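Next up, sample data:
>
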Amino acid sequence: MARTPHDLLRARVGAAVASAFGDDVEVPEPLVVPTTDPRHGDYTSPVAMGLARALGRAPHELAQRLADALEVSDLAEPPEVVRPGFVNLRLHPRWLARRVGELAGDGRLGVEPATAPTRVVVDYSGPNVAKAMHVGHLRSTIIGDSVANVAELLGHDVERVNHVGDWGTQFGMLIAHLDDVGYRGVEGRSASLAEIEDLYRAANARFAADDAFRQRARQRVVELQSGDPETHSAWRWLVALSMAENQAVYDLLGVHDLVVRGESTYQPMLAEVVADLEAAGLVVVDDGAKCVFVEGFTNAEGEPLPLIVQKADGGYNYDTTDLAALRSRAELGAGRVVYVVDAGQSQHFQMVFAVARMAGWLPDGVEATHLAFGLVLGEGGRRLRTRSGDSVRLVDLLDEAVQRARRFVVERAEERGEPVPADVDEVARVVGVGAVKYADLSQHRQSNYVLSFDRMLSLKGNTAPYLQYAYARIRSILREAGWADGLPGEPPAVTLDEPQELELAKRLVVTGDVVHRVAEDYLSNHLCTHLFEVAQTYHQFYEHCPVLRSPEPLRSSRLALCAVTAATLRLGLGLLGIEVLDRI
């Protein structure tokens, strides 16, 4: 049963429209929306504005009829009709108090499960073998992980997939070069990923300049594809070495349960993919390559743009691989497939989805979505690079954040005359990594943003440390009150007599609405904004409303507000993949 204010009011407005205007009236959406100005109430219904156009009546008159039919006395104060035709609604303090009491005993904090749970595949991170993860992998990894966290909370069957670039011409090139520099028979040999990257750059230079080497590299690709044992051994070594170093980055980020399914997984399916497209009459041979043309896609010259599914030399590319992966996911029962890949791949995924639907591999009931995202920029608004112009390694960025966080924690303790936490290294990891994640996730996904350590580690403003410290302070209060392990009994009766109590309650009861909105549009910044507003409103409450010094039952009522606030911060930050600490 829906229990969030938005859903409850939406149902009441829908019933009132039917009562006032008849069941056959087409009800314009939205039925109810949150207000941006609290002076006008908490929610407003613009329905009368839409009905006025359909019915040819004055919107103010229709708004009054709607208000007269609204049954909200248990939930909100009497509706207020305002010109030109809105019905404003203000949640009743009694309902808010009762709801906060319910949330105090609800581990889900009012986040209702999805009404129609399904299997959700989230494809994210996607590093390449033989190359270190760089800052470009940050957004895909943490956005995708947050999407998966939210979907799991809502009850979906989630599979987190790491579609690793572990196949193709570059491996023939690299393996041929490994032979020439003394790496033949590499299995069991130790090497760093930085060393392999240097070898890759050297191999790439040779491939561009040396015809004989280029031929040997291509032969190595053929051997890899045909299952030659020695070539496969070298390839497996490169994959294992890369994934081991990547796992260290995932461990630092707190990203778990990623199932690695590299491009190699789909190689046995590619010939069948092309054959089935040909059988469906979708393939056109263009300059020797097998292509599928999708209506509406053109190149810069306005000519039809093909999706190439097999190159003129008989090889396949990532267009074919992504088609095979999408087909496989749909056949294995996915109801929704979400790709978290940078905005530069938008057209590619639009075409892949379109071809999959043309071929019947993506039924109407299966949703495929590309979550495009912007760039992480350095100071000055340019791409974040090292001084030598290379991409910043992700592990280096995270290590710097952790070291800066350590200095931040030590200096803050010294300024306050407090001892440095005994677990300062653990605190630095939680604060530093959390700061990086939150700085990213608090931005609109499709926007570029400038990475600033000073800004992201600030205790002022919309940052992870601000929220983490707020959580730790609330936990300190709960420990002192004997509430550290949860409610001491049944949820207490909550009273909201002070305006600061009332405002905090209004923030806390909408968490379910916010989480469902994030699930709907895949924008984690909505959740970040909500958590920041909760923390800000809590601080105002705490400044004006004594908690531990208040007499009972007021003390327990205010402790319940503290407990629900802490739980909200913990749940919300957890969905973002950010840890909290009881003590900082």
